[in-house]
Task: structure prediction
Amino acid sequence: MNKYFSVVTAVVVLTSATFLSSCKKEGVAEGNDIIIGEYASMTGQTATFGQSVHAGAVLAIDEINQGGGIIGKKIVLKSEDDQSKTEDATAAVQKLINRDKVIALLGEVASSRSKAGGPIAQQSKIPMISPASTNEDVTKIGDYIFRICFIDPFQGNALASFAKKSLGAKRAAVLQDTKQDYSIGLANAFRETFRKSGGDVVSEQAYSSGDKDFRSALTSIRATNPDVIFIPGYYNEVSLIVRQARELGITVPLLGGDGWDSDELTKGAEQQFNNTYLSNHFSVEDPDAAVQNFVTKYKAKFQKDPDAMAALGYDAARILTQAITRAGSTDAAKLRDAIAATKDFNGVTGKITLNAQRNAEKPITILKIVNGKYHFAQRIGPNGETQTDFKTGDTPVTAPAK
Ligand code: PHE
Result:
């Protein structure tokens, strides 16, 4: 009796295991769900990047599921925390693909980590959409790797033009993080455009992610008397760099890119951040109705304002799910083609069209930090044209062009 029972049990277990693994191959689990993977820095040095992008994606997916899901199925988001470490990003992608059998991936924010996870997605032919990695090389990994943000040659160009034309700077200093591909690429783009437009790069200094004392680099920069200092880093270090620069008596405008964006950037140093600017993907001040609707929903769910990563996470999840709907399937090649065909998507980070390089063509916003708050300074269109110029950035008087 016992023997008979155990044989039956074994057969049942085996059958359901075979059933599950055959279903998982197509990324559709037992509950008829579509499994999407996400790898993000939920903890560690740039924890707000992962937490925000995750919150944005969750908001989008919850809305879609509440509306009945897509192609008759619900979406399940499986998240892996890479702890802000490049090595862990690779392992996270491996887990999501091999263990969870995800049909597509969202991630990462930091370019170095997308470059670590991307090759695994490409080899496995699992479409990956980076919400926020702006380094040029990320999408060069292969034809399954996409992004929905602009790229650093565009961002660096916009910042250099802003420094030259709007701030009137002739002499720029650059302080870059040599541990991050993002920082190196953005510094290169800025330097090139600033020089081309007739400016001088008078000082170049470097640091590494995790450093805490930037005084000697800043002292060298101060000696060269720049009109502006460009700091293409992440918020954690930038937060300290700006405080230390002001303590050393450096009063000139300080300028950075999207990596500055975090609600932790200016905390406790709001005054020292006056006369600083950053480029970004999004502003809560954008009067566009879709943006304001997103801000309201996000605030209701998470009790705080969305930052750029949250907005990008929201857009990335929606672009992916729309592509699944258009493909009518989760088949990898069909889904890849559907993502590639994204055109004029009305995102909360602007109108998004993916080009042949799988990069997004969209506008960029320059923000001015005033008493710890980000205000619109300028909106620059996908072809480098100034769409809106607020001159001082203090008062967002007109609706910015989209
Ligand atoms: N663009 C940054 C990178 O490529 C990441 C980032 C995006 C940070 C948006 C903040 C906001 O590493």
